[in-house]
Description:
This protein is of the alpha/beta class. Helices cover 24% and strands 32% of the residues. The two termini are 29 Å apart.
Amino acid sequence: MEWTQLPGIGPSAELLGDDLAGHRIIELGCGPGHNAAYLAGVGARIIGVDSSAGQIRRALAHYGHTGALFHLGTALGHLTRGSVPLDAIVSVFGAIGLTEPAPLLNAASRRLAPGGVLAFSVPHPQRTGVIPRTPRTREVMALPGGGTATVERWELDPATWARTLSRTGLQVTDLQHHFAPSDSPWPTTLLITACKPRNS
């Protein structure tokens, strides 16, 4: 499992626990399904959610045989429609960071079982050397298969992410700054892990 822009940099699925067999996991913004397929391969009960029909088609075509399930829809809609407690929620340059943080993180907190883990990576806000003055920016992204789309991105500094998570009842357990490629002058990936307290 990869959390940064390049393979082999940073941790793998151990962020989510030692033995993921049978764990209920949702990936928010699963893209073409690589990470969901990996988690299915280690025995997790994984659902990948993406708002792009093209990405869901790619995920099904490449990884539909792995046991991973792929659903078309928004991350917030999927979290709020379900009620089954989750062992983990992941987002790798996915919906977290591309969706207004407070409502999405509140929904994630409500769906996590006590002891459950939220792990997500976003582009590091300092990747250009300067943290943006405004947390909400617009960005043109290349689409798989050609074309572009303008998306909104929330560029929060690490302390703001931590405060936002704390307000939802989640506790930050790890915050990592990764350089991908390794000779980048500034960190390119911010990887955050949080958990839902067992007494909640």
